[in-house]
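Can't paste images in this forum, so I'm doing it all in text. The chain is below; anyone willing to post the predicted structure tokens underneath?
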Amino acid sequence: MLKKYLTCYITLQLLFVINSINSQFIPTKRYEHSATFIDNKLYIMGGLTLSTKVSANTIGKEFFYLDFSASFDNQELTWKDLTNINKVPSHFDGITANGGLKKNTLFLYGGTSNGDNMELVYTFDTQMNSWNVPAITGNVIRKTNLCASVDALGKIYYFGGFSFTDSSDVLDFVILDTINFSWGRGSIKNAIAREDYGSTILPNQNIIYLGGIFNSTLISLKDVHLYDTVNDIWTTKTTSGLVPSDRNSFSAVPGLDGQRVIIFGGLNVKENTESLYVLDLTNFVWSIPTVTGKRPTNRHGHRANVIGKYMVISFGNDYNPEFESDILLLDISNNDEYKWTNFFQNSNDTSPSPIQTIIPAPQKQSDNKIAIIGAISGSLAAICLLSVGAFFLYKWKRNQDQGKVIPTPGDDNYNGQILLIPSDRNI
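Text version of the structure:
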């Protein structure tokens, strides 16, 4: 009986350990993916594997999110896997944005797949966790290598980009009305065609466009272009100060005060110290901000979102995931001093953030294996100790039973009662 009990116990413990390990979803490293923040969740899908674009492969159909509703350490990320419900073919350079009446629907436009029949637009209902191919009036072409901006009326703006149909950069501006499901067009007068650029929408509903490539030539960040979504007009601003080197495949987000634009990373960056720049929109002067914390490696093909008080950078190329987290966190709440940190503090979380002096390197993949082995070894050790303890308890109890003196007539302890001789019992 004891043997059966121990066998059952050990089996259950092993199943628990194995199930816990298998339930930890670890996404594939990637770049040229999409990342959209909706209802405290950063949804990520698509992209290329970490290698040169010539030999890179599409990432597969992985679809997942990172929950920002609570505080967390970016060295211990807990991803939520939604791959089993993904209906979109494997692709890269797809453009996602939030839309719909409540802006809680994920819209995926464009992208490139490996010969799969990919629809022009997909929608994902984040409340029902379901994909759909919507019927949209109007005709537009498929494009890649561009950014999406959403205005207050639920319209998504797709400017420029690369057309595989024409095999060239296109001076094209299409607008998706996510409320009425119709395509429209924006003005291209005074606009400059480009792909692989940086852009973001500002509080005044202007969209700023910076850098990128046109016909394989880098576009200077000396001049920036603004599109007024209300009046449908373009303007150009010439900047000054520490103008960033020409680059593409970088990210751009608005500052928390709406008076500045922050860019990070990109291809053709001269030095790692020149990854991060700020453009002051009051005078259009570039500067390199004062930053504390451990400076991360320059990345390109990543994505950036403003979440809470942080610029959140996801994945990308040209960084070593064995030494840096897939998620970078830049605290931009203080314009006088930004801070690279590994702790995301949710504004609704009252627990204090840990004191950080050195940002530890994230767990390597080899370390994950070691952790798994350690978990199994620790559980087995605990099982062995419990088993040994149970065995000695059993032996002690048996000796106690066997050591009892059976009184017989004539003994001093005998008083005529009926005696029950104890037998060995299973514990």
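The chain has two helices and 34 strands. Confidence is low (pLDDT under 50) at residues 14-22, 355-386, 390-394, 401-427.
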